[in-house]
Amino acid sequence: xxxxxxxxxxxxxxxxxxxxxxxxxxxxxxxxxxxxxxxxxxxxxxxxxxxxxxxxxxxxxxxxxxxxxxxxxxxxxxxxxxxxxxxxxxxxxxxxxxxxxxxxxxxxxxxxxxxxxxxxxxxxxxxxxxxxxxxxxxxxxxxxxxxxxxxxxxxxxxxxxxxxxxxxxxxxxxxxxxxxxxxxxxxxxxxxxxxxxxxxxxxxxxxxxxxxxxxxxxxxxxxxxxxxxxxxxxxxxxxxxxxxxxxxxxxxxxxxxxxxxxxxxxxxxxxxxxxxxxxxxxxxxxxxxxxxxxxxxxxxxxxxxxxxxxxxxxxxxxxxxxxxxxxxxxxxxxxxxxxxxxxxxxxxxxxxxxxxxxxxxxxxxxxxxxxxxxxxxxxxxxxxxxxxxxxxxxxxxxxxxxxxxxxxxxxxxxxxxxxxxxxxxxxxxxxxxxxxxxxxxxxxxxxxxxxxxxxxxxxxxxx
Length: 463
Known about the structure:
By secondary structure, the protein is α+β, with helices and mostly antiparallel strands. Helix content is 43%, strand content 21%.
């Protein structure tokens, strides 16, 4: 292992940028510290060869008495080097409980996201020392492969991307570049405060490790690289399973090896949630869910909730939805001559499509299984219970009260827009109309599409 750190030069920055995916415009995060100053200055020197316009972005957290002076320094630097600068203010008074460091970072990215347009890229000055510290912090938090991969070179950020072109360089190399070019930078006194986890690692733990294992940063970065390769492989495996088992963005089939292998289950589930943009499920909740799914039988019901989201298990499927109840709808009379009934925002509309202007004569009502006053529908010479129909259709119990039911003169004539009694089916055929349900909730849309598909398959089989 070499005893020399990689020198930072403008040519090496150009090479690093060219090795990353192409973008339309760069936004450079600029605090005024050594790292971001080196990145911004070097980019300004090679911009004619990079070929993309760039601007600097300074975020004022308002945490320190010198915050205004730091912003002034950044404005002066950019004015001197003819760089356009955006200054953003964020409010840390209303904290989420995630800790000051995490809260400031999250709000900083959220503020910068407002400036991003499709094709834009935020460049940050994270370097090799930051990467090694991130690995150790995540290790101490009990992170898995994703966390031990530390910071990726690039990732999605809002409608744009975030890229970190300095991960191969140590902080000392960036400081050397500034000194060689006689460039001033700011020193944030809070970087010396040991009550912050990262500062404690940087000033106490890392120097101690260095005395025993020289160039410990480089050793840790080798582990980051190995973990990143493992993460890439695991993501490919998870994507293969999702391609086979994901029938809808919010409905995952859990069968075969996926239901019996906890490690595979956890891997695929985390990848699924990451793809949908849902907050990461806590490890203890995932472990509980995995154990329950392995022990579940046909009708077993399981429910796990976290951060405003919920996963429910029913008949070998996991259903993902927000933890907010869908507003139900009361029994509503459908006036003759009216072609549409509004069921509410997420439930959408029931519509009669065709030549006839509306529904049959009589007391035609719309409700659900809890208020329509009927629990069975006539099919030929016998009745079928709603419970059996819902079960055979694979509709989860917690969604059944949102399926619209129609009655005519007190008799149930329609379940959704796929199951009708003979009287109503005959009337629709004679008048060349169809009853159509157009829900807006994604899971109800999925159920509706699934039932329509079953009807088509059944009709084709009969023919």
